Amino acid sequence: MAGVRLQYRRRNPYNTSSNNVRVIKTPGGKLRLLHIKKRGTAPKCGDCDAVPRLAGLFLMMMMPQIPALRPRAYATTSRPQKTVQRAYGGSRCGNCVRDRIVRAFLIEEQKIVKKVLKETEDKKRGKK
């Protein structure tokens, strides 16, 4: 099969990334080129993806729950299959969502502590 010359079956005559083909044998015993669709890419986390790690290498966190499809296929897929049932579902991974929630909680706690400290300072100044 390696030495067989075959013609492309569509109008693009060049070996490009959008013109991938595979040699198949038809039931009639002939060799044909089968056009292969591009593989889809799964969505990646927007936070993990943006953070450089390991000396310049990027660690991209994939969303394992969401299927890897081509853009047009996402248009016909229902919303429950494209998202995850939590805050930032389908946009951020679970670890990053947890980090965001903890960070927001700690910032709010810090504001409360500052407010209490300021009130105690004001009371001390008022007594003097």
Describe the structure.
By secondary structure, the chain is of the alpha+beta class. It has two domains: 1-38, no CATH class; 40-126, no CATH class. Helices cover 34% and strands 11% of the residues. It is built from three helices and four strands, in the order ββββααα. It has helices spanning 71-76, 79-82, 94-127, and strands at 21-25, 31-35, 52-53, 57-58. The strands form two sheets. A two-stranded antiparallel ribbon has the order 1-2. It has a two-stranded antiparallel sheet with strand order 3-4. Strand 3 and strand 4 form a beta hairpin. The longest helix is centred in the last third of the chain and has 34 residues, at 94-127.
The end-to-end span amounts to: 97 Å
The whole-number mean of residue pLDDT values reads 88
Main beta sheet, described? 2 strands, antiparallel
As laid out across the biggest beta sheet, the strand order is 1-2
Overall shape: it is: rod-shaped
- Unreliable stretches (pLDDT < 50, length at least 5) are none
Strand content: 5-15%
The total of helices stands at: 3
The residue fraction in helices comes out at: 25-40%
Number of domains: 2
Radius of gyration of CA atoms, rounded to a whole number: 28 Å
Order of helices and strands: EEEEHHH
Total strands: 4
Helix- and strand-based class? Answer: alpha+beta
Protein name: 60S ribosomal protein L34-B
Family: Belongs to the eukaryotic ribosomal protein eL34 family.
Pfam family, one: Ribosomal_L34e
GO molecular function: structural constituent of ribosome
